[in-house]
């Protein structure tokens, strides 16, 4: 057995032990199993959020796009690099407050309680389960492909082994196992990708030499419009490419749940800082490796394998082992979070709230575990029989989820009057637009990215739908107001407050002194 | 710069710095809000 395989196996075992070690803590409490008892600090929140957001796409789909399109691919990285800052700034504090005020444990339960509608929950659950499953199946395919190529195992066996570890610790350890393994994996991911990128750039003579070599092959690799200027002048495609990862995270249930599990609203500021630093180190590197692949691996048959093959061809040994671990870390940290969310939605939102309202905490935890196991097994079967392109599947699934839920989550904390008709229209039309746009290839005809089209339609649907539904109850409007945080006095009033109140204060003092017979 | 066309350089390269600055600004803005909240409690 090679040194790299041994290092990788030790890493997987370490994760398994870490994840399972949380099983005793979470055994019978739904709150602990599903949300980790709302106990996460800034560093864990930031790194679990980012390692969950950055899936196998970052090691396979992203570099493949860079390999095929050159610098145009960086548009996707630009949005991604700011995604967590936008997500935490816009939703962080308000969603943390609101979820506690509503007593919501899952992102779907949150929508149901905020919009006071069972229909919202049913529609949101259906969209989530279908597209979160598609998302996690893409991760499983990525895991199988990577392990097959790098360890020499068969695709099926590699898939079962890799995914088996994820399922094992997620089922036993619940949310805490997921976030703490994510924390470790985020560190492995950034060390692995930064190490291999530095070595790659040294090998090729630096960024300037890299670009000179790209220009010698085809100057359009350096263009912002893609290879052969395929997207020339299509600002709708560029804007969609930026927005899909800049704001989609606000609509992904397995990501927004991180706002709900923070220790307090004070966690947000530290999480923003940590995730900003992590993003700038991590996110651009895979794309640069895609560029290096154009030069070093000109005859590569499968562009999604550019990073693993670069690592194993040019930097075998420990670097390759770290890279393999980092790649699996990206896949596992996303898969475990999605499996966890799917299990939560099925057990908490469907089983407990629709099928068995009197289910005990112990029973809900058991159902959640069984659901995670079932979805995981279905995922393995689907991944064995239908291995499509990872990039296309991740972009499609995340786009549909983002178009369905982003407007719903943002409106839930910023608009007191956002109602159930508005949110239903927004979720359904956002998802439908993205699906129709993608399946009908309307982006080719219109030059508008499916995500941008879905976003515009979902915003319009929310505005129009709101006019038809009844406003939320008085109580809910008060909760939204409370979630905005302590009331501040407007600056212009604060500035003049002492001047405006001084005559009044003087009169009161004189009156009291007169009444009480006090001399000055 | 870095052998990139000017358009590519100026539209793409500054972004990591812009986002990092945004992260730092948001950190201090929220720290101020947290302090104000603590004082008002």
Quick structural gist:
The complex is a heterodimer of chains A (520) and B (41). Chain A has 520 residues and is an all-alpha fold.
What does this structure look like?
- The complex is a heterodimer of chains A (520) and B (41).
- Chain A is built from 23 helices and no strands.
- Chain A is mainly alpha-helical.
- Chain A has one domain (3-26, 41-251, 269-485): Sodium/glucose cotransporter, CATH 1.20.1730.10.
- The termini of chain A are far apart.
- By secondary structure, chain B is mainly α.
- The longest helix of chain B has 26 residues, at 15-40.
- The A-B interface holds A 71, 74-75, 78, 81-82, 85, 88-89, 93, 207-209, 211-212, 215, 222-224, 265-266, 268-270, 272-273, 275-277, 279-280, 284, 485-486, 488 and B 2-5, 7-8, 11-12, 15-16, 18-20, 22-24, 26-27, 30-31, 33-34, 36-37, 40.
């Amino acid at each position: 057995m090679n040194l790299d395989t041994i290092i990788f196996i030790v890493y997987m075992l370490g994760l398994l032990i870490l994840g399972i070690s949380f099983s005793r803590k979470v055994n019978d409490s739904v709150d602990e199993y599903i949300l980790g008892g709302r106990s996460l600090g800034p560093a864990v929140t930031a790194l679990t959020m980012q390692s969950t957001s950055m899936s196998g796409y970052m090691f396979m789909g992203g570099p493949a796009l860079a390999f095929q399109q050159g610098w145009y691919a960086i548009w996707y990285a630009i949005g991604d690099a700011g995604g967590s800052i936008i997500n935490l700034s816009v939703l962080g504090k308000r969603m943390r407050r609101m979820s506690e005020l509503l007593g919501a444990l899952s992102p779907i339960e949150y929508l149901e309680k905020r919009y006071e509608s069972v229909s919202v929950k049913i529609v949101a659950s259906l969209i989530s389960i279908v597209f979160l499953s598609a998302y996690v199946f893409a991760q499983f395919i990525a895991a199988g492909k990577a392990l097959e190529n790098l360890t020499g195992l068969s695709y099926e066996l590699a898939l079962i082994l890799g995914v088996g570890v994820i399922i094992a610790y997620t089922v036993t350890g619940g949310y805490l196992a997921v976030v703490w393994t994510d924390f470790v994996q985020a560190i492995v991911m950034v060390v692995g990708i930064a190490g291999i990128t530095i070595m790659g750039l040294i090998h090729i003579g630096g960024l300037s030499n890299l670009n000179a070599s790209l220009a010698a092959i085809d100057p359009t690799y350096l263009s912002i419009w893609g290879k052969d200027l395929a997207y020339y002048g299509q600002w709708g495609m560029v804007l969609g490419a930026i927005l899909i990862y800049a704001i989609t995270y606000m609509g992904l249930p397995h990501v927004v749940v991180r706002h709900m599990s923070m220790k307090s609203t004070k966690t947000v500021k530290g999480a923003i800082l940590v995730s900003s630093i992590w993003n700038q180190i991590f996110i651009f590197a895979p794309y640069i490796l895609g560029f290096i692949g154009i030069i070093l691996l000109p005859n590569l048959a499968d562009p999604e394998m550019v990073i693993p093959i670069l690592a194993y061809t040019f930097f075998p040994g420990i670097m390759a082992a770290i890279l393999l671990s980092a790649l699996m870390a990206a896949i596992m940290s996303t898969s475990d979070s999605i499996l966890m969310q799917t299990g939560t939605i099925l057990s908490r939102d469907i089983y407990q709230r629709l099928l068995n309202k009197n289910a005990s905490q112990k029973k809900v935890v058991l159902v959640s575990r069984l659901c995670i196991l079932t979805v995981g097994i279905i995922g393995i079967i689907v991944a064995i029989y239908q291995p499509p392109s990872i990039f296309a599947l991740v972009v499609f699934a995340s786009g549909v989820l983002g178009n369905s839920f982003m407007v719903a989550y943002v409106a839930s904390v910023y608009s007191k009057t956002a109602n159930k008709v508005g949110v239903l229209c927004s979720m359904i039309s956002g998802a439908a637009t993205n699906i129709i746009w993608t399946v009908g290839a309307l982006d080719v005809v219109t030059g508008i990215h499916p995500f941008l089209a879905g976003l515009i339609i979902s915003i319009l649907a929310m505005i129009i739908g709101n006019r038809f539904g009844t406003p939320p109850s008085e109580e809910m409007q008060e909760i939204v107001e409370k979630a905005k945080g302590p009331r501040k006095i407007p600056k212009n009033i604060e500035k003049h407050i002492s001047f405006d109140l001084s005559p009044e204060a003087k009169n009161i003092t004189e009156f009291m002194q007169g009444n009480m017979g006090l001399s000055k | 710069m870095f052998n990139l066309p000017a358009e590519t350089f100026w539209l793409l390269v500054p972004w990591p710095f812009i986002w990092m600055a945004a992260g730092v600004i948001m950190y201090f803005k929220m720290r101020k809000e947290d302090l104000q909240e603590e004082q008002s409690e």
